[in-house]
Specification:
Layout lengths: L4 E8 L2 E9 L6 E8 L10 E7 L7 H6 L3 H7 L2 E5 L38 H16 L3 E11 L1 H12 L7 E4 L9 H11 L21 H4 L11 E6 L3 H4 L5 H10 L7 E6 L6 H19 L20
Parallel strand pairs: 4-5, 4-6, 6-7, 7-8, 8-9
Antiparallel strand pairs: 1-2, 2-3, 3-5
Length: 318
């Protein structure tokens, strides 16, 4: 398969989960990912949209594929799901394996500019350019022009910041317990200092020209998101989430910024789930709601497609 190697293929909910690896031009390392392809439709196949799931700190592309249970809901709508890794691995950068919340497993979905991380830690380019190009080349059944983003924790930050940095490129975005204001929380400050260098001066926080820190912070990005571009963001966070309680997520800061930017609940939906924590027990409990949400934008649920199919309870219901 050229640049992609299939290491294994596993039957899952009627579809197939492919475990893939390739030599990345973005990171300069070998990257692994999971790709779920739902079963073929009963009629002439149409290209299926893509949902990209971004995982959190310490995770790989395996975590959600095994514990998130997106697949049965993706099968309902005929949506392919990609589960990329969270960082380069084996880059050989000094110190990258020292801490669990920085370096290996903690790429934060940005392109580092600070040496020595600037050579390999290019996860923003990997997610936005290299990954879709690879899938377009090797999986013709996937429509890489119809893509939505979902993520958890650090991956929630990645999904939201990438969505907001690229107005109109992605059809929808959802996040579980996202790091919604990384410039203001310990996790984000540690990562951004390492990947970008020291924080911007306090006096420049409201500068017309955002600092590189602010360019990857959803709470700042939503302030300048163009009002004439569609917006669709869904967020869930558990009230018993220790990281939410300790100020790592700062979802309220994002909510406030969204309201001030005139993006109401019709565009940005935030739900606080009573008693739920930060784990995949939480993610899997509400993942159906998120897939249903994305299907509305990826497939136009309830609308008749050009090939005569009506998207309803199943992706190919007529």
């Amino acid at each position: 398969m050229g640049g992609l190697t299939v290491t294994s293929s596993i039957k899952s909910f009627g579809g197939t989960l492919h475990k893939l690896s390739h030599d990345s031009t973005s990171t300069g390392t070998k990257m692994a990912l999971n790709l779920f392809i739902p079963p073929a439709p009963p009629r002439e196949p149409i290209k299926m949209p893509l949902l990209v799931y971004l995982s959190g700190l310490t995770c790989t592309g395996d975590n959600c594929a095994e514990k998130g249970f997106i697949q049965p809901h993706a099968v309902k709508y005929g949506i392919a799901v990609a589960y990329p890794d969270t960082s380069p691995r084996g880059a050989g950068v000094e110190g990258e394996d020292k801490d669990w919340d920085f370096g290996t497993g903690a790429g934060f979905y940005i392109d580092a500019t600070n040496p020595p991380y600037d050579k390999n830690y290019k996860m923003y380019t990997y997610i936005t350019k290299e990954l879709p190009a690879l899938l377009k080349e090797h999986y013709q059944e996937i429509d890489t022009e119809r893509v939505s983003l979902m993520g958890h924790s650090m991956g929630g930050h990645g999904a939201m910041s990438i969505y907001l940095k690229n107005p109109g490129k992605y059809l929808s975005c959802s996040a579980f317990a996202p790091i919604a204001n990384p410039v203001a929380c310990p996790w984000g400050q540690k990562a951004f200092t390492g990947y970008f260098g020291p924080p911007p001066p306090t006096s420049s926080v409201e500068s017309p020209t955002p600092s590189i820190w602010q360019q990857h912070d959803s709470t700042h990005l939503i302030k300048s998101y163009p009002q004439d571009t569609p917006m669709a963001i869904k967020i869930d966070v558990g009230t018993a989430d220790k990281f939410y309680q300790d100020g790592q997520l700062l979802v309220e800061n994002f909510e406030k910024a969204a309201r001030e930017a005139k993006w109401g609940e019709a565009y940005v939906e935030v739900k606080k789930r009573d008693g739920y924590d930060h784990s995949y027990y939480f993610v899997s409990s509400f993942v159906k709601d998120h897939v249903d949400f994305h299907a509305t934008f990826l497939l136009g649920v309830g609308q008749r497609r050009p090939d005569g199919l009506v998207v309803g309870e199943g992706a190919y219901q007529v």
